[in-house]
Amino acid sequence: MTLEIAIVLGVLLCAVILIASEVLSIDLVAVLMIVVMVAAGILSPEQAFSGFASDVVVALAAIFVIAGTIARAGLTESIAVAMLAGSRGSERAGLGLVMAVSVGLSTVFSNTSTASVLTPVVLSYARRAGLGAGRLLMPMAFASMMGGTMTLIGTSTNLSASGMVTALGMAPFAFFEFTAIGAILAVAGLLFMIGPGRLLVPDRRPPDLVADYGVTDYLTEIEIAPGSSVAGLDVAGLELERAAIEPLAILRQGTRLSANPLRIVLPGDRMIVTGGLDALLRLRQDKRFALVPEGETAADTARSDLVGLAEAVVLPQSLLVGRRLGGTAFFRRRRLKVLGLHRAGSPFATRLDNMTLRVGDVLLLQGATDDLESLKGNPDLRGLAEVDPLPPSKPAGLAALGLLTAAVGCAVAGLVPLPIGLLGVVAILGVFGITPLHEAYRMIDWRLLVTVAGMTAFGLAMYQTGAADFLAVAILRVSVPFGVPAGLFVLGLLTVLLTQPMSNAAAAITMLPVAVASADLMQIDPRPAVVLVTLSASLSFVAPLEPALLIVYGPGRYRFVDFIRAGGPLTLVTLGLLVVLVPRFWPL
């Protein structure tokens, strides 16, 4: 082992530990890896920054904007609701239909976007059909991950890996290169989850299904400001039901009173209410009330810099878990206000600042745009999506979908490179005011782009120094006696294991140089090995650390072990299929 190899592997080990322990965010770890590689003389500055100038980063940024525009227009949810209506109450049919819709949507949208859109739809469908939402949400998230493997833009992992294989001297992945094998994997996964896998998914229903509001229902507080026109009216006279708001209790001078319809409200009263996100947005515009953040008074909400709203979820292993909402300085340090809290189950008639945070709690936050953006990639509280009270219209969403289809068609026909086509779509959306540039910048996950660029450079360092060859030899010492299939299986298994402390894209980029080196040692074409690693990175279902799985973690009332029990066998099934199918599509 040379000194350069020791440095590269040492940096890799430190990066895995830092990411797994969540001491530093993954994007910061990626930047530090670049700095160390340049400082050690392993990479030149041009090589270190080559990932930031790649067409993959441009394509990823454009996809964030286009998919965000279509999702915000409500088009995907309308399609999903219409398709879900065909299951007629059968649990198996409903499960199959939910997974099929999820697979279809995730071929274009990221699996995170698909899970975000479908979670409230599935919760609503489960209530209407009398089914347990937990039986549907986990398979839906699994399906979104499987569907994302079918196209180049279905998941950031495919795009990121395409850029990496280009840096390694191979042809980039074609747009539909994975479609056939991805479809087979999706069908196999669907059949597994409808069959034996269905028995492995827990069904933890609340005592009252009506209380299962879904991810967009929040507990919050409103205040009757002095001089308000509603002061002196009874609760019924407030007509909150017309705004889809349910009053739970009234707080008056430190005393909690029931929200009896005949009770008179007085200036200074606070009312604990629950309602959906749209209802809270309408309530925010109602001058008769003040939507009161946790630990504040109505007068404190008038700051001019508190201009944005966003949703964020409490992550597993977060330092916020077990903390009382009013007793943590986390939000004050970040200049954020908590307007509402969603937790699967019945609403609590208690003040927000008395709530103890749990894994999967979804918070409605108010703050300046840059402060809200800082939550993306945060190890304690991950920003899900910024809330825009004026989303694009459905015709605008249809226009964005049509433009995306045209760009993909031109790329497939060889008329224009895919990144240029996607960038052109973003430009058109901006010119016609469908997605203004300031909104487009907010839709982009800049931290993911930095991570992809940084990890691409590190992957190049692994390849150039021989660290990838060193790992490949270690792998093959174990697997070669059992043949090439065993070697491919070990490559896929190591990739799956790396997706636990790292993001899927980062795990793929890290393992791709190892796959190329392993292919050379096994005397096979490197293409099958890099394809297997790329697809394996997207098919790890064993822990709720993937954002798509984290989104359903709370609403489904899951526990960590549930994903091991249901996702572990599914991961082994798909990995086994990859070992068998990849050599059929990409000859060794």
From TrEMBL:
Q: Domain RCK C-terminal spans what residues?
A: 207-289, 296-381
Looking at the keywords, is Signal present?
A: no
Identify its membrane topology class.
Answer: Multi-pass membrane protein
User: Pfam families under this entry?
Assistant: CitMHS, TrkA_C
Which parts pass through the membrane? 30-49, 56-75, 95-123, 135-153, 173-195, 420-437, 444-464, 470-498, 505-524, 530-554, 566-586
Q: Give its localization.
A: Membrane
Specify whether Transport is a keyword of the entry. Answer: yes
Q: Which UniProt keywords apply?
A: Membrane, Repeat, Transmembrane, Transmembrane helix, Transport
Cited InterPro entries: Cit_transptr-like_dom (IPR004680), DASS-Related_Transporters (IPR051679), RCK_C (IPR006037)
Its main subcellular localisation, reduced to a broad class, is membrane
* Coiled-coil spans in chain: none
Q: Cross-referenced PANTHER family, in alphabetical order? A: BASIC AMINO ACID ANTIPORTER YFCC-RELATED
The protein's name is RCK C-terminal domain-containing protein
Species, as recorded = Thalassococcus arenae
